[in-house]
Automatic annotation (TrEMBL):
It is a single-pass membrane protein. It holds the Pfam family WD40. InterPro entries: Quinoprotein_ADH-like_sf, Sec12-like, WD40/YVTN_repeat-like_dom_sf, WD40_rpt. SUPFAM superfamilies: Quinoprotein alcohol dehydrogenase-like. Keywords: Endoplasmic reticulum, ER-Golgi transport, Membrane, Protein transport, Repeat, Transmembrane, Transmembrane helix, Transport, WD repeat. The keyword Nucleus does not apply. The chain crosses the membrane at residues 266-284, 345-367. Gene3D superfamilies: YVTN repeat-like/Quinoprotein amine dehydrogenase. This is Prolactin regulatory element-binding protein. Signal peptide: none annotated. Residues 97-136 are annotated as: Disordered. The lineage of its organism: Eukaryota, Metazoa, Chordata, Craniata, Vertebrata. GO terms for cellular component: endoplasmic reticulum membrane; nucleus.
Length: 371
C-alpha cells in the first residue's frame, strides 16, 4: 500500500490558524493573519464555498472579512454565533448570510461596453429580470467580549446549550455561560501523568454521543507544558458534557498534538500535530484509523470535519468522512476516509450454512458407511 497523500484545497495570502464549516450553506471558514506586527501580512477571515466538481470536492473564495490588527487564532461555531479567539480576548460574532442580487446577462453585457467589470459580490444596479439571481454574502456583528485567561487562549468550544469552554496558556480549562465562570476542568489531579511533569490543555471540542440524542461529550487534548529531551506522551480525554468529569483518557503518542476536531455524530476525532501530521481516531475507543505523516511539513493549526447534515452528505459523496486541515504554510488540505463497509450478517449466516452443507457432503463421500 502506498503512502497516504492529502489533497490541497485552498491557499490563503496569510498563515492560517483556525477553521470551521457552516453546514447549511456549505461554507468553509478559515482565519489567520500576520498579527499586530507591521509585516504587510493582513489579518482576516475567509469564507470559502465548497462544491463538488467532476466528482472532487473543491473550494473557492466567496468573501474576505478584515480583522484589522488582530489575527484570529481559533474559531468556534454554534448556530449563527462565531466565537473568535484573538490574543487574550474572545469575540462573539453573529454570523449571518444575506442575499445580494447579481447582474443579469444584459447588465453584464452592458458593463463590458461601459467600463471595467465589477468584482463578484459588488452591489449591482437595480434592475428586475427573469435571469436575476441572488448570492449569499456573510456579515458579522460583535455580541460580547471578555477576558477569559491570563495569557493567550489556546482553544475554545461552544456547546449546544450555550456553554463556552476555553483553554489557555495559564494551564486552565474554564467553562463559561456567556462571561460568567461556571466551573474548571481538573485532569492533572487524576490523569495518568508524572507529578513532576506539568501538562496543559491544548485543545477542546464538544461532541455528540452516537445513538444517544441527548448525550454530550467534551473532548480535550493534554500536552506537556514544557519541551523535554525525552518528551512524555500526549493524551486524549473524553469528559461528561453535563458534569464535566473525566470519563476516559488514552495516550495518543509522542508527537505533540496541536489541534482537535469532532465529527457531527461524535463518531470520529481529527488531530493535527506540530510536525504537520494529521490523524483520524474513533471517538468511542480513542483508536487511530487514519494517519498522514507530515502532511503539511509544519505545525497544523486547526482541523475540521465536513458536516454530516445540511449540504455535507451531498459534498461528501461516497466517502465515510472528510477532514480539513490548515497550517502556518497558508494551505488548507482535504483528508478523505473511504467507507469501511462491513459484511452483512445475512451473508455471514449464508456462508456458515454453505460451509456446513459442504462439510456434510464431503463426510458422506469419505465415509459412506458411517452416514
Amino acid at each position: 500500500m502506498g503512502r497516504r497523500r492529502a489533497l490541497e484545497l485552498y491557499r490563503a495570502p496569510f498563515p492560517l490558524y483556525a477553521l470551521q464549516v457552516d453546514p447549511s450553506a456549505g461554507l468553509l471558514i478559515a482565519a489567520g493573519g500576520g498579527g499586530a506586527a507591521k509585516t504587510g501580512i493582513k489579518n482576516g477571515v475567509h469564507f470559502l464555498q465548497l462544491e463538488q466538481i467532476n466528482g472532487r470536492l473543491s473550494a473557492s473564495l466567496l468573501h474576505s472579512h478584515d480583522t484589522e490588527t488582530r489575527a484570529t487564532m481559533n474559531l468556534a461555531l454554534a448556530g449563527n454565533i462565531l466565537a473568535a479567539g484573538q490574543d487574550a480576548h474572545c469575540q462573539l460574532l453573529r454570523f449571518q448570510t444575506h442575499q445580494q442580487k447579481s447582474k443579469t446577462k444584459a447588465e453584464k453585457a452592458g458593463s463590458k461596453e461601459q467600463g471595467p467589470r465589477q468584482r463578484k459580490g459588488a452591489a449591482p444596479a437595480e434592475k428586475s429580470g427573469a435571469e436575476t439571481h441572488r448570492e449569499e454574502v456573510p456579515t458579522l456583528e460583535k455580541v460580547l467580549e471578555f477576558k477569559a485567561h491570563e495569557g493567550e487562549i489556546e482553544d475554545l468550544a461552544l456547546g449546544p446549550d450555550g456553554k463556552l469552554v476555553t483553554v489557555g496558556w495559564d494551564l486552565k480549562a474554564s467553562v463559561w455561560q456567556k462571561d460568567q465562570l461556571v466551573t474548571q476542568l481538573h485532569w492533572q489531579e487524576n490523569g495518568p501523568t508524572f507529578s513532576n511533569t506539568p501538562y496543559r490543555y491544548q485543545a477542546c471540542r464538544f461532541g455528540q454521543v452516537p445513538d444517544q440524542p441527548a448525550g454530550l461529550r467534551l473532548f480535550t487534548v493534554q500536552i506537556p507544558h514544557k519541551r523535554l529531551r525525552q518528551p512524555p506522551p500526549c493524551y486524549l480525554t473524553a469528559w461528561d458534557g453535563a458534569t464535566f468529569l473525566p470519563l476516559r483518557t488514552k495516550s495518543c503518542g509522542h508527537e505533540v498534538i496541536s489541534c482537535l476536531s469532532v465529527s457531527d455524530s461524535g463518531t470520529f476525532l481529527g488531530l493535527g500535530t506540530v510536525t504537520g501530521s494529521v490523524a483520524i481516531y474513533i471517538a468511542f475507543s480513542l483508536q487511530r484509523l487514519y494517519y498522514v505523516k507530515e502532511a503539511h511539513g509544519i505545525v497544523v493549526t486547526d482541523v475540521a470535519f465536513l458536516p454530516e447534515k445540511g449540504r455535507g452528505p451531498e459534498l461528501l459523496g461516497s466517502q465515510e468522512t472528510a477532514l480539513f486541515s490548515v497550517a502556518v504554510d497558508s494551505r488548507c488540505q482535504l483528508h478523505l476516509l473511504p467507507s469501511r463497509r462491513s459484511v452483512p450478517i445475512w451473508l455471514l449466516l449464508l456462508l456458515c450454512v454453505g460451509l456446513i452443507v459442504m462439510t456434510i457432503l464431503l463426510l458422506q463421500r469419505a465415509f459412506p458407511a458411517l452416514l
